[in-house]
Design a protein that fits this description.
By secondary structure, this protein is mainly alpha-helical. It has 18 helices and four strands. 66% of the residues lie in helices and 2% in strands.
């Protein structure tokens, strides 16, 4: 047992500790690309479109460009840090080396909120699609949530190779669906009539313009800024890739390539969906501003209701891709904090046969489901059905923004304080890119506060933080373990990285 001088204590563990927490290496560049794109792609199927109600079409486009710039600054920073610090801990690992144990813990906690809540958001969209396709009563939505969690946690548990193969398949299918939609939409679009069919009512809220031809920016600059939190959904979770570092064959070489290729893919897809989905004749920005299944609305307008079941199932693929891959990230994120002792250590034990962090995924999923069910029963089924997705989305985005700020700060500190660390890849945007990430993330948080559903969501986040901080202060900080992340950080980045 040793004290490190920062109020934390490291306990000695036996040789079997890390043997019970072993991972397998499998992922190459293609698998990492699929993991990153798959995690995000559901945001091109649902969620982003709520921004039309605050910014109109032009506001959504410009907000998307601003958020893309933020993510470029973030992903280039992460690409550099993930190659230099190839640990499963990702955000926690970067912050731990740059800002000490408390900095690492709080950053990991922010990311934990994001990765536990984001699958909950995605499964609400999945359920909405399923209800629309099969005409199910929304009152039974919790049963659909539980069913999807059970199936995809199982797929993630039963082997790394299976998990990555499923990820690759559903990601490629999702992109094929989007390309098919773009090709279908182009000959059936009327941009001015439908994409520009939002105006401003007497109360300042969005109203439908029956003949279209509205302004690009009906809500002005403030509308653009208010749309930033919704535009985040077009890229949210690309930053999860470094969580696969210890399951990557060559993370120092492959991780930056996977992140950058994934970001390029997502920027192209984001532009196409923002342009084409509201432009389809019979759809429009106003209708999409409150839709839980915007892509399905687009398919219906083009092909009619006769094929709604087939089209709906096709449109589900993107949501399923993200649900599956973010459950993967959730498990690795909890695993890394648990292996180092920040969370209860038992959560990091991996499956004896499949070498996957099954306990971490199971507990994270139970917490996500519990939050959903509490909101569902607290608000009542009818009210919760209308607002649960927005409440959860605000929780996930707020956790993400705080973690982005912390990771960008970590990048800046590591550049200034630890220039000796080997950096196989260097961010072409450097410190200015990280600073821009911080500025945009802070502005996004500022406008997110104005969403009435933010208050409902942030209260849950504060409770989450309070419980976790009390646990770490009272218990966790006295039971830390020299995991790869901790060894690297304690050496000041001078120790050669080695995986246990």
């Amino acid at each position: 047992m040793a004290q490190d001088g920062r109020g934390v204590t490291y306990q000695t563990v036996d040789a079997g500790y890390f043997e019970k927490r072993g991972l397998m290496r499998y992922a190459g560049v293609a698998s990492l690309w699929a993991l990153g794109v798959g995690a995000v792609i559901s945001g091109h199927f649902s969620g982003w479109n709520f921004g039309f109600s605050t910014g109109g079409w032009g506001g959504m486009l410009v907000a998307g460009i601003i958020i893309a710039i933020m993510y470029l600054g973030l992903t280039f920073s992460i690409a550099e840090m993930s190659a230099a610090l190839p640990h499963t801990g990702a955000a926690y690992s970067f912050a731990r080396t740059a800002m000490g144990p408390w900095g690492g813990f709080l950053t990991g906690l922010c990311e934990n909120v994001e990765y536990v809540i984001t699958p909950a958001v995605v499964v609400t969209f999945i359920t909405s699609y399923v209800n629309a396709i099969f005409g199910l009563d929304p009152a039974y939505s919790p049963l659909t949530w539980i069913a999807f969690y059970a199936v995809f946690v199982a797929l993630n548990v039963f082997g790394l190779e299976l998990s990555f193969r499923v990820t690759m398949i559903v990601t490629l299918i999702s992109l094929a669906v989007l390309v098919f939609f773009w090709l279908s939409a182009i000959p059936n679009m009327d941009f001015s009539r439908w994409a520009l069919n939002i105006g401003v009512g007497p109360d300042g809220a969005a109203v439908e313009l029956p003949e279209g031809g509205g302004e690009l920016f009906p809500f002005g600059l403030s509308g653009v800024l208010a749309t930033l939190p919704f535009a985040v959904w077009l890229f949210l979770a690309i930053e999860q890739l470094p969580l696969a570092a210890e399951e990557s064959i060559d993370p120092k070489r492959d991780m930056p390539k996977g992140i950058i290729l994934g970001m390029i893919t997502l920027m192209v897809s984001a532009f196409m969906i923002v342009l084409l989905n509201p432009s389809v004749i019979g759809v429009g920005s106003f209708k999409l501003s409150s839709s839980l299944e915007p892509l399905l609305d687009g398919f219906r307008a083009i092909y009619g209701d006769s094929g709604v079941v087939v089209l709906g199932l096709v449109a589900l693929t993107g949501l399923i891709a993200s649900f599956h891959t973010i459950l993967y990230a959730q498990g690795r994120q909890i695993y890394s904090l648990s292996r180092a002792g920040y969370f209860p250590r038992g959560l990091s034990v991996t499956h004896a046969t499949y070498r996957t962090p099954h306990l971490a995924m199971f507990v994270g999923s139970i917490v996500g489901l519990a939050v959903m069910l509490v909101i569902w029963f607290a608000l009542g089924a009818e009210q919760a059905g209308a607002s649960i997705g927005s409440v959860l989305l605000n929780m996930a985005v707020s956790g993400a923004m705080f973690s982005y700020i912390a990771q960008a700060v970590s990048f800046i500190l590591l550049r200034s304080r630890s220039p000796h660390i080997e950096r196989p890849f260097r961010s072409p945007l450097g410190v200015p890119g990280a600073v821009l990430t911080i500025v945009i993330a802070v502005v996004t948080l500022g406008y997110q506060v104005q969403d009435p559903n933010f208050t409902k969501g942030v209260l849950w986040v504060l409770v989450w933080f309070a419980i976790a901080i009390v646990y770490f202060a009272a218990v966790g900080r006295h039971k830390l373990v020299l995991s790869p992340e901790e060894e690297f950080a304690l050496s000041g980045g001078k120790a050669e990285y080695r995986s246990h």
